[in-house]
Amino acid sequence: ADHLVIAGHDGGTGASPLSSIQGAGIPWEIGLAETQQALLDSDLRTRVILQTDGQMRTGRDVVIAAVLGADEVGISTAPLIATGCIMMRVCHLNTCPVGVATQDPELRARFSGKPEHVVKYLFMVAEEARGLMASLGVKRFGDMVGSTELLIPDAEVDHWKSRSLDLRPLLAIPGKAIDAPRGHVSGDAKQTIIGASFDERELIPAAKAAIESGESVRIESRVTNIDLAVGGRLSNALVRARGPEGLPENTIDIALTGSAGQSCGAWLAPGVTISVAGDVNDYAGKGLSGGVLAVAPAAKAFAAGYRAERNVIAGNVALYGATRGKAFFRGLAGERFAVRNSGALAVVEGIGEHGCEYMTGGAVVVLGSTGRNFAAGMSGGIACIWDPEDTFESYCNQQMVELEPVHPDGNSFLHNLIAEHAERTGSTVAAGLLDRWDEAVEEFTVVVPPGFRAAIAHTEPPAKARTVNLA
User: Kind of pairing, strands 444-448 and 402-404?
Assistant: First the structure.
């Protein structure tokens, strides 16, 4: 990485659960100091930019962060306060009374903030930091980055909670780094992968005929976990050559074996299909833009009695920000599945916590269990959960959604999507449901935001034809 962010426990969105706001994370000072020391000890400090955040409010906070090793600081809550935020902690409910975090026209009309308010606040922070730097005899901000000798524990603080704490380890500098630069050095070697990416080596040359003339191509290759964003550069080349509509589905058919690195299938364009026999890391299908991603275990795994529906096949945050296209996962996916999905169709056989968070469109079918806080902030789209044990309700955040059985009009859509999942991944779970469909469809629970249903009801016919109505 070229840029590391140490986010402290004090910061974060007002949409977070109160338990997370009060009980999750540790102070940024600890994380920043330990990161700084680890990078110095590894001779890597000059190659990366360190940023920290978490209720940075004053110039003093900025100076302390710099002394502990931060090249940059992030300030978010205080500028929001400057523009009128009163910290009602309803950012996710669309009911912000001062119009800061809402799409309601009446509430937005109450917004009184101006850019000048933020500018004035930041100037005051900078002026205070400048004064402290002058008192320390520091001319430039970069000169005090990592200069922990400028900080000493305050012996006069006498609080029962701090009496047993020894803060000196936070200020320690590895012996080998005493005379070394302690901050980022512009132009120093970065942490980059040497050589062409997987797309540039394998996919783009093999797909040349499809990109240039629309011919169907089949590409087979092995992928490893150092191959990042597989399909991303290919999609870029395709869209540059043929426009955002790309090519007909499955024109570029890519079959991969192995364990794909992060962001496999990111921004996949229409016409590109990636099938992975193995597994994928975090952010699979990130920003999916019309392509198809199908992931299933390698065939040899089943020889030893492997059960895909009980094993993880995709990492966290799959389909983050997807806009259209399809994704199929024969197995479990991690946390935050389909966060901010706005149009993609997906089938998965179980997910972790916070699934479909902030979703605004598309459809997600889960043929298994979900973690807690499902559908938090979900304002659009449809989710359909296979819930034969009738336990899903306790895992769903129902502040913005309702739970219903499958509507007769949505029966065929759900059946066809599960059938495609079975065809593309060989899922035995999907096949079993299809074999007893009339009975199985009664075991599904549909998650739908009331506002989304109302929007569908008032949509003009041409646009309505593109919607999904399961409830």
Answer: antiparallel
How many Å is the maximal CA-CA distance in the chain?
A: 78
- The residue among 177, 202, 224 that closes a domain is 177
Residue 243 identity: G
Number of domains in the chain: 2
Domain that holds residue 168: 3-177
Task: Read off the tokens for 21.
Answer: 């706001």
Question: In this structure, what is the dihedral angle of CA atoms 453, 458, 464, 466, given to the nearest 10 degrees?
Answer: -50
Q: Model's pTM, two decimal places?
A: 0.72
Write the DSSP assignment of 352-392 as a string of letters.
Answer: -TTTTTT-EEEEEEESS---SSBTTT--EEEEEEE-TTS-G
Closest CA relative to residue 85, chosen from 108, 113, 121: 113
Residue 467 has pLDDT above 90, yes or no: no
The answer to whether the beta carbons of residues 334 and 317 sit under 8 Å apart is: yes
* 3-state percent helix, strand, coil for the chain, nearest multiple of 5: 35, 20, 45
**CA quadruple 88, 90, 96, 97: dihedral positive or negative?**
negative
Whether residue 274 lies inside any domain: the answer is yes
Nearest to 469 by CA among 430, 419, 416, 414: 414
Work out the number of other CB atoms within 10 angstroms of the CB of residue 195. Answer: 7
Q: 318 by DSSP, 3-state: which?
A: coil
Enumerate the H helices of 83-114 as residue ranges: 105-108
Quick check: helix, strand or coil at residue 346? strand
pLDDT tops 80 at residue 190 = no
CA dist 1 and 44 (Å) reads 11
